[in-house]
Amino acid sequence: MSETFTKSMARNIYLGGSVFFILLFLALSFDTLGALPKRDNRQNITPQVALGKKVWEENNCLGCHTLLGEGAYFAPELGNVYTRFGGSKEAIMGFIASRPVEGIPGRRSMPQFNLSNEQLEAVAEFLKYTSEINSANWPPNVQG
Amino acid sequence: MQFQSQAVAKPYFIAAIGLFIGQILFGLIIGTQYVIGDFLFPEIPFNVARMVHTNLLIVWLLFGFMGAAYYLVPEEAERELFSPKLAIALFWIFLVAGALTIVGYLAVPYATLAAVTGNDLLPTMGREFLEQPTITKMGIVVVALAFLFNIGMTIIAGRKTVINIVLLTGLTGLAVLFLFSFYNPINLVLDKMFWWWVVHLWVEGVWELIMGAILAFVLIRLTGVDREVIEKWLYVIIAMALITGIIGTGHHYYWIGTPEYWQWWGSIFSALEPIPFFMMTVFAFTMVNRRRKEHPNKAATLWALGTAVMAFLGAGVWGFLHTLAPVNFYTHGSQITAAHGHMAFYGAYVLVVITMISYAWPHLQHNAPASNGRAQLLEMWSFWLMTVSIVFITLFLTGAGILQVYLQRVSDTPLPFMVVQDKIALFYWLRLWTGVIFFVGLCLYVYSFFAKGKETLASS
Q: Do B48 and A28 lie within an 8 Å CB cutoff?
């Protein structure tokens, strides 16, 4: 780099640039928090949804699946599974409850998590709530 | 070694490499599970093995960063470390806490681990990369604060260089941003939004400061180029990293419920994110070309140049590949993401830690500027084996990703996820065998530490 561009100029770009963009990021984040109530389906967060999220987390579902595209890529996207299963919570519950303990020979299989009926209903309700978040029309189609 | 207390870096580097081996072994397990679905099922299900794979990566990189800081800060500050005893105590606390967490993952079902560790009191578990029990997270915070205190006190009492100030800034940012891992609202959109404040602002923010500082430190020693020149480069690189990377967080806010304007902010700023990585490449090559001395540690120079190039390819090019919102609409959460993740982490962070180890180890172990010729040759072989492997792993996953996106999301008759997975299995097989080659390279790397040369060691 040329001699006319000094170290203190470089330092000022670093400090000034960082501070400016941190403040801009905070401003945008603040604006986002204001815009979320219309998008994030918070009116449907019930104690059951809260339990469902907890069951979701405490069984590390994200270790295989994606949820709104984030997680592991080993098993199907679940942000829209409620839609994919025809809007049926029973179908979701039935699928989770019926996983074989010893798996399926040679194939990927979801573990049997031995969830109670209350936990199964809560997870299904959580996935229904998730499917109703405004995700800007993602995923492109029902296959996720 | 210029200062006795730099020796505390040694156990950190050993632990880092040990955990690196574990990370790759679990990578091979999940790579196998991709093609033989019931491999180790139900004893080690995929989600557990993956969690071990990613958590070991994070922990060993943290060991590497801390070791690098303990080696680098005394030399830059021109004084002994504030408290070597504290550094050694923190090493054992961090290692035991980390080991217990991994044992917990493997020994009991995750739900049991959550119950035993009191996740009810402050639920923070079950989110990608932040799967650690809440109590482990608290331990990480305590270790991080005590570590910052130790190197902060060293810097305050000593010479303040751009390198150790930038490093300290990056490490402080790392610790502060980690605090967001304790914020886990029930509202999924808020949860995801602030989860990225840890994950994105780490790897595309403050970690780049750490990486830049380590690279600058090593390049000053290896090339003998004037500190003023290198520090100027460092400032410009980290300026660009933060200017592009902070708003670049927006590329994670396209489809998680956050407003659509992030598609513009995220696309524009993250399209600029390759710039700091490109500058890092130009920087590294320019400094080596303008070197004022021939440093005997050729291997360290190779690792340093490799870091710059691979970080640019993995984080820069493969990041840009799917960062624009209209592209990301199709690629989000596919094997394209996995391809990018592998090369970016390897190129930027794995390699920068190994660069530091490669430079520091001869000083720590032999009190010499370089290892013997044979050990260096082995190191270089391991560099090429691991680097070429990761390039091919990335290419195979990219191939898998393109097919996956087309079959599942673009074609007129989109197929279900599992059907598509079967169709692209060939690429997963290729990835797995390439992973085996990577492991061979890693074994060679470990062996290089024990290789005896014919010539006598160069004396310092």
A: no
Nearest to A135 among B45, B162, B257 (CB): B257
Closest partner residue to B128 (CB to CB) among A21, A35, A71 is A71
Identify the bridge partners of residue A107 per DSSP, sorted by sequence position: A104
CB contact under 8 A, A58 and B126: yes
Delineate the domains of chain B, giving CATH numbers in brackets.
1-160 (1.20.120), 218-449 (1.20.210.10)
CA B101, distance to chain mean position in Å, is 19
Any bridge partners for residue A67, and if so which?
Answer: A70
- Residues B373 and A28: their CA atoms lie apart, in Å, by 54
The size of chain A, in residues, is 144
Using one digit for the tens of pLDDT, what is the confidence trace for B101-130?
999 999 999 999 999 999 999 999 999 999
Cα separation of the two ends of chain A: 48
Q: Is the dihedral angle over the CA atoms B332, A63, B16, B89 positive or is it negative?
A: positive
Cα–Cα distance measured from residue B108 to residue B113, given in angstroms and rounded to the nearest whole number: 6
> Hey, how many other C-beta atoms are within 10 angstroms of the C-beta on A76?
20
Task: Fill in the amino acid letter for B397.
Answer: L
Distance CA A50, CA A104 (A): 32
Cβ–Cβ gap A113/B236 under 8 Å? no
Q: Is A45 helix (H, G, I), strand (E, B) or coil?
A: coil
Which ipTM score applies to this complex?
0.97
- 């099922």: which residue's tokens? B41
- How far apart are alpha carbons B323 and B244 in whole angstroms? 13
Nearest residue of chain B to residue A24 (CA atoms): B247
The DSSP line for B183-198 is ---SSHHHHHHHHHHH
Domain boundaries defined on chain A = 1-38, 41-144
Chain B nearest C-alpha distance from A70 (Å)? 6
pLDDT tens for A49-66 read 999 999 999 999 999 999
Instruction: Note whether B409 contacts A143, CB cutoff 8 Å.
Output: yes
DSSP label of A107 = B
**CA B367/CA B458 separation, integer angstroms:** 9
Q: Rounded to a whole number, what is the distance in angstroms from the first to the last CA of chain B?
A: 9
Domain A41-144 fold: Cytochrome Bc1 Complex; Chain D, domain 2 (1.10.760)
% of chain B surpassing 70 pLDDT: 98
**Inter-chain touch B37–A61, beta carbons under 8 Å:** no
The pTM (predicted TM-score) of the whole model is: 0.97
> Taking CB atoms and an 8 Å cutoff, what residues of chain A touch B37?
103-104, 106-109
The arithmetic mean of pLDDT across residues A42-50, rounded, is 98
DSSP codes joined into one string, B258-322: S-THHHHHHHHHHHTTHHHHHHHHHHHHHHHHT-SS--S-HHHHHHHHHHHHHHIIIIIIHHHHT
Among B187, B235, B333, the residue with its CB nearest the CB of A14 is B235
Distances (CA, A) of B357 to A22, B143, B281, B385: 33, 22, 20, 18
Cis omega (within 30 of 0) for bond into A76:
no
Which residue from B126, B252, B188, B329 is spatially nearest to A130, judged by alpha carbons? B188
